[in-house]
Amino acid sequence: MKSGFVTLIGRPNVGKSSLINALVGEKVSIVSPKPQTTRDRIMGILNEPNLQMVFVDTPGIHKPKTKLGEYMNKCISSATADVDVLVAVFDASKGVNGDDLDRLSTYLKMNCPVVVVLNKIDLVSKERTLELLGKFTPYVEQGVKEIIPCSCCKRLNIDALKKTLASFMPEGQQYFFDDEISDKPISYMICEIIREKALLLLQDEIPHGLGVTMQSYVKEGNLTKIECDIICERDSHKQIVIGDGGDMIKKIGQSARRDIERLVDTKVFLKLFVKVREDWRNNRNVIRDVGYNDN
Ligand SMILES: Nc1nc2c(ncn2[C@@H]2O[C@H](COP(=O)(O)OP(=O)(O)OP(=O)(O)O)[C@@H](O)[C@H]2O)c(=O)[nH]1
Ligand SMILES: [Mg+2]
User: Fold this and answer.
1) How far is the CA of 131 from the centre of ligand 1 (A)?
2) Of the candidates 285, 294, 286, the residue with the CA atom closest to the CA atom of residue 229
3) How far is the CA of 14 from the centre of ligand 1 (A)?
């Protein structure tokens, strides 16, 4: 049996969560076009005969402006300690600059093998892909084990990446049961699905100030009744989340319900409430209520 931990790290929005979902083959982590979508360390588990790879998703590296931001950065540090391989993810459509390469040098000091993934190659030409890959070549001497161009959307090289990462797995025990796909409970995954739909449907700044908590979860035969609160920072934001005549909250609910039904495998009755907790991203208690626990 080979088993181990693979942490994905990089700037916000480069496609870390998309890569984990592609590697695991299940949606374990939410994805959106807005930076700082992932707020927590989330594990996605891949089980194959005699192999268990635990992929660890992390929030994009950024300068924290709130206590929630500090929590997110703490997650990155804990997710990079004691792993078997670190995957440094870059976005081909954004190019590779000096700052990116400095980050790579920092990862190389972390005392574990580093694999570079250049993601989103479907958005650039072949020539540009080769040019960007060339920027990483000098780092092979400094310890980069592989440089792999990928596309999650087109599923390019995902299997090759999986194979490469599997080669770094040591002999070991099974950390999770065969049927587990994540370390997070179902309640957490449901709240995340609702936050994802809010991120996708709402414009600009508001989604970054949203949190979702579950109030109740009751399974009755083939129906699951779920009540959740969407927490926002201001009254004016609450109005926008609710929308004209409840239009927006209805859209968020309908879209989330479809995904939740797939996850829980029953019909779902989803009730959403919108609540205001001013400046909650700086309030440790609410941060904990929302499911981010720094212990
Ligand atoms: N065209 C293209 N888009 C991609 C690819 N991979 C991810 N994306 C898109 O990039 C955006 C960000 O993807 P995420 O997976 O949420 O990125 P992330 O690195 O987890 O972002 P944070 O959680 O904010 O740090 C989403 O809109 C994805 O659909 C890819 O290979 N090609
Ligand atoms: Mg993410």
Assistant:
1) 21
2) 286
3) 5
Helix (H) or strand (E) holding 42: strand 42-48
Name the phi and psi angles at 7, rounded to 5.
-100, 135
User: d(Cα 52, Cα 177) in Å, to the nearest integer?
Assistant: 10
Q: What is the pLDDT along the chain (295 residues), one digit of tens a residue?
A: 999 999 999 999 999 999 999 999 999 999 999 999 999 999 999 999 999 999 999 999 888 899 999 999 888 888 888 899 999 999 999 999 999 999 999 999 988 999 999 999 999 999 999 999 999 999 999 999 999 999 999 999 999 999 999 999 999 999 999 989 999 999 999 999 999 999 999 987 677 899 999 999 999 999 999 999 999 999 999 999 999 999 999 999 999 999 999 999 999 999 999 999 999 999 998 899 888 876 6
Ligand 1 geometric centre to CA of 39 (Å): 14
Residue nearest to atom 21 of ligand 1 (CA): 13
First-last CA distance in the chain:
30
- For the beta sheet containing 211-220, the strands, ordered from the edge strand earlier in sequence to the opposite edge, are 211-220, 223-232, 267-276
For ligand 2, a single-atom ion, the residues with CB < 5 A are: 17, 37-38
How much is the pTM?
0.95
CA-CA distance, 104 to 276, in Å (whole number)? Answer: 40
Question: Which ligand 1 atom is nearest residue 89's CA?
Answer: 19
Domains of the chain: 2-166 (3.40.50.300), 186-289 (3.30.300.20)
